[in-house]
From TrEMBL:
Taxonomic superkingdom: Bacteria
Protein's name in the database: SIMPL domain-containing protein
PANTHER family in the cross-refs: PERIPLASMIC IMMUNOGENIC PROTEIN, SLR1258 PROTEIN
Keywords tagged on the record: Signal
InterPro entries documented for this protein: 26kDa_periplasmic_antigen, SIMPL/DUF541
Signal peptide: 1-17
Keyword Signal: yes
Lineage: Bacteria, Pseudomonadati, Pseudomonadota, Gammaproteobacteria, Alteromonadales
Amino acid sequence: MRAIIISLCLFSSSLFAEQLPDGPHVITTGFAEVKANPDMAVIEVSAEVTHSDGLQAKQALDKRVEQFIRAAAKELGLTEKQIVAQTLYTHPEYEYPEQGKGKPVLVGYKASRNLSVSLTDLDKLSQLLDLILSQELQQVNNIRFVMQDNTALATQARQLAIENAKEKAAMLAKSFDATLGPIYQINYQQRNNVPVIRAKSAMLMDSAPTGGYLHDELTVSDEIQVVFTLNVKSANCDL
């Protein structure tokens, strides 16, 4: 027993130097992850209009975006807070002669804008995508599945990590005929607790009867490191 305890102290001391207690102790790292289904989809869309006049290009694009927002509110019940329209950009469009002969010719102006749509009713995702295309917003750039609020998941993952650290420490102490003493140190770094989105961009499955979009579960993980002192029947860890 004495030899075992001493070797444990040597191993621990080499890792953490002066931060560890002088006597027998055990270090454990608790880890846990919690999975859940996403409850919101974020759809990133781009829209653009090209016109010979820059102002008319902007006005045409504004009209198209406004029509989409009204249609989304009427058909899907989306609010303005769920649709974020990014800054509008306009730039000239040129036609370049072949083989670099001659000067570029101005053919018009392009107005472009990106939109981000947050959908909390995932059953309406296919309907929303149909609406986007019917309103001539051109392109769906990305679809992400996320959690609206992962606070409860983060709390659950943290508590499970704590229990995991305790269980490991108790098991190790018992294996060496010792018992856990008071906690000497807790090392914990707050995570951002952003769920890992394991789903790729949503894929339309031809085999799905309603054109459904499939996604994987989201995962929130956490970990904590704890140093416990050890109570042993007869041990001396003076090194």
